[in-house]
Amino acid sequence: MQKLELSSIDDLRMWLGRLPAIKGVETAGKTSALRYFISSAWLRGAQLDKKTTLTRIPPHRLRALILEDLSRYPDSSSTDINRRIGAEISARTVKRALDDMIEKGKVIFIGNGRWRKYRLAEGNP
Hints:
The chain is of the alpha+beta class.
């Protein structure tokens, strides 16, 4: 969740505009703990139910997904990693990310060719 840091409540009103009046945003909490969030009714009415895709995933997010996958499933092949994090991501993209993480010392591999398995490097949380 991103936070918007403003110096006063008046600055926040400029950002919100008419959204509270037309029920575009809702609130939770009181005074300094007051939080604003998008109305669930508005989200349902916006028809944002299209299928998501990871084909254009930013490299840093892909690396984070791979690290999370390897923390749960050590000694995995690149094919298994690709299947678990999103089959719509090309195998070459996953392989490139793995090679980059090996070069940076975050991931190590065991075996060669088709039998290569990946795991987190020692000391990498």
